[in-house]
């Protein structure tokens, strides 16, 4: 990863300028200066580009889940959730007895899944169970992705918790607990949380438990500064969405290349972090390498450190 305060040049050209390279050549060169991160739930796309890290979100997981080759991951998540829901959400006083019977439970897992009766749960617990299944699905995809990348994977907390600090904290800890159930250390996980005030405060609290977070839905310099002051691990500015907003308000204005307000925003954030020596990583969607990946459905991220 580049340690410079200004973007490195590729083949003597500024990375913001178009280069006549084929996709594979440009990707190889880009990897010399930054970390490439796959933004997809499709394992084939990840294997094709050999990125360092990967990030997912529920919409990407849904796209992948609709493909027949991923049906087993969904079925496994549902069955595992039926077998383990009570163990995960049992009252504190009941947990010790549940742990003692865990081994016996595992041998009768399929029977328990069949005995699980969703209809007998209260409305509140039904919602809790469905959220649990959704998290297990995301973790199932995450653990498979980690077999393909040497680095980390980002798994997103339910966006409906964006303005709920404690809800974000609880859900993040459950996701980490699920990964640990499958033998994956939290060192390889980034919890993706919206960069609202509540989300940033949740990430700050989670950092004390050595849980790293990826703050997303970041559109402003103020959000970036707040994330840096909270010492979050990584932010994901939405370059494209910033540009979309400006285009909608000023349809006749030229926003190409260095006039792109999304790019300008990221440059400001990046330079500010470097000036004040913040360690928070800036991960940007379709920035340096838009010239060669703009026709790819999966898309990739660039990460500066």
TrEMBL record:
GO CC annotation terms, alphabetical: cytoplasm
Keywords associated with the record: Pentose shunt, Schiff base, Transferase
Gene3D superfamilies, per database record: Aldolase class I
InterPro entries reported for this sequence: Aldolase_TIM, TAL/FSA, Transaldolase_1, Transaldolase_AS
Single GO BP term: pentose-phosphate shunt, non-oxidative branch
Enzyme category, top tier: transferase
Metabolic or biological pathway: Carbohydrate degradation; pentose phosphate pathway; D-glyceraldehyde 3-phosphate and beta-D-fructose 6-phosphate from D-ribose 5-phosphate and D-xylulose 5-phosphate (non-oxidative stage): step 2/3
Annotated catalysed reactions: D-sedoheptulose 7-phosphate + D-glyceraldehyde 3-phosphate = D-erythrose 4-phosphate + beta-D-fructose 6-phosphate
Signal peptide: none
Keyword Ligase (UniProt): no
An annotated Gene Ontology molecular function: transaldolase activity
E.C. number: 2.2.1.2
Similarity comment: Belongs to the transaldolase family. Type 1 subfamily.
Described function: Catalyzes the rate-limiting step of the non-oxidative phase in the pentose phosphate pathway. Catalyzes the reversible conversion of sedheptulose-7-phosphate and D-glyceraldehyde 3-phosphate into erythrose-4-phosphate and beta-D-fructose 6-phosphate.
Protein name as annotated: Transaldolase
Organism from which the protein derives: Ichthyophthirius multifiliis (White spot disease agent)
């Amino acid at each position: 990863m580049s340690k410079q305060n200004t973007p490195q040049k590729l083949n003597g050209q500024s990375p913001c300028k178009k280069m006549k390279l084929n996709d594979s050549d440009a990707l190889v060169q880009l990897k010399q200066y930054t970390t490439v991160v796959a933004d997809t739930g499709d394992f084939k796309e990840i294997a094709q580009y050999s990125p360092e890290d990967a990030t997912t979100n529920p919409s990407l997981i849904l796209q992948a889940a609709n493909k027949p080759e991923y049906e087993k991951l969904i079925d496994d998540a549902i069955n595992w959730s039926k077998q383990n829901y009570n163990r995960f959400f049992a009252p504190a006083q009941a947990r010790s007895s549940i742990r003692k019977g865990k081994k016996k439970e595992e041998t009768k897992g399929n029977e328990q899944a069949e005995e699980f009766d969703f209809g007998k749960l209260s409305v509140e617990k039904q919602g809790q169970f469905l959220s649990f299944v959704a998290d297990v699905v995301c973790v199932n995809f995450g653990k498979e992705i980690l077999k393909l990348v040497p680095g980390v994977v980002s798994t997103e907390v339910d966006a409906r918790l964006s303005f709920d600090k404690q809800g974000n904290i609880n859900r993040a800890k459950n996701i980490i607990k699920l990964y640990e159930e499958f033998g994956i250390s939290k060192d390889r996980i980034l919890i993706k949380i919206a960069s609202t005030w509540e989300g940033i405060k949740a990430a700050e609290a989670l950092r004390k438990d050595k849980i790293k977070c990826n703050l997303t839905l970041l559109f402003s310099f103020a959000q970036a500064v707040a994330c840096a002051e909270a010492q979050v691990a990584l932010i994901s500015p939405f370059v494209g969405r910033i540009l979309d907003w400006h285009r909608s308000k000023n349809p006749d204005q030229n926003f190409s290349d260095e006039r792109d307000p999304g790019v300008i925003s990221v440059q400001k954030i990046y330079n500010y972090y470097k000036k004040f020596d913040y360690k928070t990583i800036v991960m940007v969607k379709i920035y340096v390498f838009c010239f060669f990946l703009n026709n790819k459905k999966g898309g990739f991220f660039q990460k500066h450190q």
